[in-house]
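S.,

Sequence below, as promised.
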Amino acid sequence: MDYKSLKSKSPESVRLAIRDGLYASHTAGLGKGVLQANIVIMPAADALDFMRFCQRNPKPCPLIAVSDTGNPEMFTAGLDIDIRTDVPAYFIYRDGVMVEEMGDISSLWNDDMVAFALGCSFTFEHALLAAGIDVWHITNDTTVPMFKTNIETVPAGRFSGALVVSMRMIPEERVEEAKAITSHFPLAHGAPIYAGDPAGIGIRDISKPDWGDAAPVLEGCVPVFWACGVTPQAAIQNAKLPICITHKPGHMLVTDIPDNVEVPIIKLPNSN
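The prediction came back faster than expected:
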């Protein structure tokens, strides 16, 4: 199933296509009206420290759902979500090193694992597009560029590292409008943290992102940077856990949580 056909599909249909192996690419522009989520999966022994890391760094790590230990069904994030299969691509880290990419982690899941879902900036892009602000990577079917910065996160236990940001080129006269629009999505990182010269936050070369695809520097536009849910991947590299699983940057979990809420809506199984 191709990207264009999925753009008009429901969140459930998007997840089913991913689960069935029919789609394995980026999710920017999919699941209109709901939150997309970054995913981090780790052994239970480290889960409390990671939750503390999210609590201390809510801008890059807005926590929207946590699984029960050993239960891959993330029922607080939506109907029939299986965290082992419903993400287009996963990165596998061992001792802090990314060693493998997989499309299904059923063979790695065990009864000791805990899964976290963190809000993603892909969520607010629908609002930017609705306001007539072009989002280049969606228009061109690529993955948003992401960069490590010189801004340090607040550590927790084994978890520490640099803040990661995603970048979008915004017309100079509409930067303040983009800030205002995205501020209404606190579970998707909210307003940007910085706009202007990338060197101001330690980015040496905007044409060489650490994750995602490069985007052109457009005439009359300003590079604008939002806190990014890839931040935990930098922290995971420092923590050197024996195993940790994340989404591949740009390849998110599409949830059923409405994108206009300020706190996650938790729906228990079989509730109305």
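Helices lie at 3-6, 11-19, 44-56, 122-130, 136-139, 175-182, 231-239.

Coffee later?
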